[in-house]
Design brief:
By secondary structure, this protein is an alpha+beta fold. The chain has three domains: about 170 residues, Beta-Lactamase (2-Layer Sandwich), CATH 3.30.450; about 120 residues, Efflux pump adaptor protein, beta barrel domain (Elongation Factor Tu (Ef-tu), domain 3), CATH 2.40.30.170; about 120 residues, no CATH class. The protein has nine helices and 20 strands. Strand 18 and strand 19 form a beta hairpin. Helix 7 packs antiparallel against helix 8.
Length: about 450
């Protein structure tokens, strides 16, 4: 009857203890119940409760009858050393003195009773949640070991249930988000230092390379254009005519003046045979004759220039032939040019706001308006130091580029497109924030 009563009391105590751990609201409270109130079920002298962590060794978190754990206390250090050899097992294990190293045995004889028991606090499928190291002066019975094994599973379940809500481990969703956010931040910062080639876009035009410039050889009026844009001409072909009426009149007047001067000089020379005073007029009339002859030769040379001929073979580069008809031109004024269609270059108008440091040999990629899907390669050969006003009214640097040998045949003269000019290598941070940095520096005046 007494044994039955004792078993009933133990069963009631076990139920009461399990009810207590289910009612624990914090991890600290739960650890206190495990370390101290387990004595109501099984007697022991000392109890060290250790946590189970994957990233570090087991550590004592609670000691029976002590409100705060001193990490430097001899018993705490000794308990962690003892458990280090038995923490991998999930079975209750009696630890004898012979299982310990001589050094731990010597210190244990001064710190704890001789009978030790390791009680793992585990949960099926969740692994080890912690453990209890119990000490006392008398041996452990089989009934007590079985009872503590059952209690260890209950404690393990309670620790697993309450730890994720209170410890802030990686299992909590916000912790996972925080870890992912930190990882993304590190990746983002790393990408900001990714090296890139700085590039800008600018309008570009295909122009002839070293064309023959045909200028007005005289001051006159254009009568007729004999060629059309893109016409192929040979050396000596007629390009245009100037109005010849005025030039012809000047030539005739100069010829008549020369004839008059010649007749007058002839008459004076004949008079000099009979009149000695006429000899003094001969030198003056000879000078006038030379002057009229020079005027006649100049007028003849001007008249011979009313026809402009090509001095080389190539393609005619001309804007609008009709706009030249009846237009007065000055000497040296550019009218048209003759270019080799296989010798072309690229002129890029780089806006001042997009200017980058360019060097000879910098890469250029051209996307023509008529064929934007096929890119043409070129490289910079020179760039102006000072910007000039473009036809659109903006300021831009004139950059000249040559097409690579792989660009065959070269694009037609006059084609336009967008050129992508590559500068020096920079980081992605500078590539994205170059404009804002420039505006900010202009705003603060630095």
């Amino acid at each position: 009857m007494t044994a039955i009563t004792s078993d009933n009391q133990r069963f009631a105590t076990l139920l009461q203890l399990e009810q207590r751990i289910r009612g624990a609201e914090t991890l600290v409270e739960l650890r206190f119940i495990i370390a101290n109130e387990s004595r109501t079920l099984v007697e022991y002298a000392q109890c060290a409760l250790l946590s189970a962590r994957d990233d570090r060794p087991h550590q004592v978190v609670t000691v029976a009858d002590l409100p705060v754990v001193d990490r430097t206390a001899p018993f705490v250090v000794w308990a962690e050393q003892v458990v280090e050899s038995f923490s991998e097992t999930d079975q209750v294990q009696v630890i004898s003195r012979d299982d310990l190293t001589p050094d731990i045995q010597q210190r244990g004889s001064e710190l704890a009773p001789s009978h030790l028991l390791w009680v793992p606090l585990s949960l099926s499928g969740r692994g080890l949640q912690g453990g209890m190291l119990l000490t006392r002066t008398i041996p452990w019975s089989d009934a007590e070991i079985s009872l503590l094994a059952h209690l260890g599973h209950s404690y393990g379940h309670a620790l697993w249930a309450i730890a994720p809500r209170r410890t802030g481990g990686w299992l909590r969703p916000w912790k996972q988000v925080r870890k992912l956010s930190l990882l993304l931040a590190v990746v983002f910062v790393g990408l900001l230092f990714l090296p890139l080639r700085l590039s800008v876009l600018a309008p570009a035009e295909v122009v002839p390379l070293q064309p023959a410039i045909m200028t007005a050889p005289l001051q006159g009026v254009v009568k007729q254009i004999e060629v059309l844009p893109n016409d192929r001409v040979k050396r000596g072909d007629l390009l245009l005519l100037f109005e010849e009426t005025e030039l012809k009149s000047r030539l005739e007047v100069a010829q008549r003046a020369l004839e008059v001067a010649t007749a007058e000089l002839h008459k004076t020379r004949q008079s000099a045979f009979v009149d000695s005073r006429a000899k003094g007029d001969i030198s003056g009339l000879e000078a006038q004759l030379d002057l009229h002859r020079a005027e006649r030769d100049f007028a003849r040379a001007q008249f011979n220039k009313v026809q402009l001929f090509a001095d080389r073979a190539g393609v005619v580069v001309l804007n609008d032939p009709q706009s030249w008809l009846g237009r007065p031109v000055a000497v040296g004024e550019r009218i048209l040019s003759i270019a080799d269609p296989l010798q072309v270059e690229l002129v890029i108008h780089l806006p001042v706001a997009d200017a980058v440091v360019l060097r000879t040999g910098s890469a250029v990629t051209l996307f023509l308006d008529m064929d934007p899907l096929n890119a043409l390669e070129a490289e910079v050969v020179r760039a102006d130091y000072e910007p000039k006003i473009t036809a659109e009214g903006g300021l831009a640097y004139r950059v000249t580029a040559r097409f690579s040998e792989r660009t065959a045949p070269p694009p037609r003269i006059g084609l336009r497109g967008t050129a992508k000019v590559y500068g020096a290598p920079v980081t992605l941070f500078y590539y994205l924030l170059r404009r804002p940095i420039t505006v900010f520096r202009q705003w603060i005046g630095v």
